Amino acid sequence: MTAEIKDLNEFRAEVSAWMKANKPADPGFLLPQTFMEVGTEEVLEFLRSWQRKVYEAGYIGLTWPKEYGGKGLPEAYQVAADEAMALERVPIMLNVIGLGWAGPLVLKSGTEEEKQKYLKRILTAEDIWCQGFSEPDHGSDLGNAQTSAVKDGDEYVINGIKIWTTFGNYSKYMILLARTNPDTERKYDGLSFFLAPMDVPGVTAVPIQKITGEYGFTETFFDNARIPASCLMGEEGQGWRVAMQTLQFERTAEGGQATRYNFTPVTMKDLLQTAQNTVRDGQSLLKDPIVRDNLVKFIMEETSLRLSATRAEIPALCQDYPFSLALSGKLRATEYFRRMRQYAISLQGGRGGLYVGDSDAVEGGFWQRAYFNNFSATIGGGTSQIQSNIIGQHVLGLPKS
Amino acid sequence: MKREMNYALSFDDEQAMIMKSAREFCKGKSSIQAVRELLDSDTGYDRKIWKAMVELGWPGIAIPESLGGIGLGVGSLIPIAESMGRYMLATPFFSSTLAAQALLRGSTQSQKEKWLPHIADGLIATVALLDSEDWGADTISCTAVESGGKLKLTGSKWLVGDAGVAELFVVSATFQGNPALLLVSSGHLSQSAIQRHTLIDETKRAFKIDFSGVEVEKDCLLDPTLAADTIRDILLIGALLTAAEATGTAAASLDNTVEYLKTRKQFNKLIGSYQALKHPTVDILNEMEAARSHLYHAATIMGEGPLSEDMEIACRMAKAQATEALLFAGDRDVQFHGGMGFTYECDAQLHIRRAQWSQQQFGDAYHHRKRLASLFFD
Fold first, then answer.
1. CATH of range B228-377; options 1.20.140.10, 3.30.300.20, 3.30.1490.20, 2.30.130.40
2. Do A303 and B5 touch (CB under 8 A)?
3. What distance in Å separates the CA atoms of residue A219 and residue A160, rounded to the nearest whole number?
């Protein structure tokens, strides 16, 4: 059986069947819906072994070259595998930053040595990766990052604070954006990009409690942390360009991810289930004309997101604004999910005010938690407002704000 | 939800060719000055342009080759309609196309052979389906009765497109208690029976027609067993074509807004740099793009014969999304032009007037969402 010649649908069915057969039993604790919700060692190790199992079955890293642990297949195979995982709602793939953005970056721009060293261990989840871009004072204004990297012999000395570091306390490596030159005319030109080890003295990752009450990322302090000079990716001063390339992967504006399955999908079907099971004024909410109209609007929006993802791959159907769909996907999808989740809570009556832990909460507080967590998507990776600026400027050609 | 959604969306070289030639044609023939020059003309369109369109074969593009057309199906109408909307090009294309689809789907073989080759050749035809303002009416108030070996009509129709120039009308009526479609040629209608509406969209021409007293031969009755399905399908195809046109106009309106935001200065800054204007403009882009995705999905799956439920869903979603997107675009087009936007001279008026027209044609957004809800939840 060579996967290369297998029909995609057949492959998708194979993955689905495997997922069905191998889906882990309920571990007795709440599994994360997104990768920003890994807050305990227990969850971490559970997901680490699950990712490894999926990798060994041959369902992630499909597009990566064989010599680095992949299978050298076209992107469509990974998309099919990801779809099958979403369909079966299996636990998410843990090592998102490695699989989704650091890995593709190394693959595209890294040296042979870097590829050998990092890629396979990303796929097996032996090395967890994190991202050090945002700083407490510089969230959306990434180009203004102030964490410093000063060269000292064959080392760089790192000082500063990074924030919103997903897996900060579990990671072996960080993709780090730091300032090697504080005196450049353009702030961007002083930045450099590092594949930095986290297990060196002077790095402290302090977990941050999220809006949901759980832990999921850290504030990461660098206090004279020394990393090898060979960790520099590209040249000094090229950090901004590399970071932008990384964001292309993060926002899935560019392919090459070992998987994109990093959240458990919450779809219209879930919302409709909730509406159907809810009785108001003596009848199911699915009989209420206003609720029905709102639900149809959500169905239309979800449908258009699916259709637009397909259309984005057909250049002839993207005339007028060629990059519009690629650049707006994140904004559209994350805002849709936020509104849809909020709407689900609004249908719950008195139970809408109950939270995870209350036995009367609708589906264990699933919607409340999903709504809160969704802010990580509308804020992280560039807020919706920043996305609108980018689209306005780069797609419509409007002047900078 | 009881059903699985259809997400098919593809595109082939033939469609690419149609899209390219439609865009080039409409762009070349319909500058905004040309659009404005036609606003107070009698017919609303330029006969030379219609003739050129006929020579390209567009009125017959979805008519089978065996009946004198090109045989590319309803999907091929989408890029043409979108381009016409993009450049606000007015012709009897929509009216003739809908009449042809009604004949194709609902008439006998001899009726098809008699009329469709002519329509493909540029004979102007139209449909008369609306009894008053209600696109959701479940009965047809216009009636046909047998009288002296002929069929005699009673009742009026609203918003009959291009009736001033149409030679053939496909008219819905209740006949023997059931929905029916009849063919009426323009010779049967007196001048006083055709009354032009004053439309909010001055690029369009539509008429109120009193068919009372018109008598036609029995062979003008379309196949009665197909009438109900045909009426339903024509209303859906009409909605889809309106959606395609509206999506094109939404893009035109967006461009008009963007152009102003890039050139107009206030407080020494280009107004497009203000996020209060920039972000809603991005929202317009996104709504227009969503409409395009619905539209091309519909173009992908539309086919011959009675419309499937997937096709019905695609038409309704496209209509609900596209005309809402155009309303949003046109409304903000006016507002963001400030004082200029309030003038007749500003092109924003063309877009918002089109928006108000399109939203009502073949059922408004709520009308379609209501029917989608029934398909999904009942």
1. 1.20.140.10
2. yes
3. 11
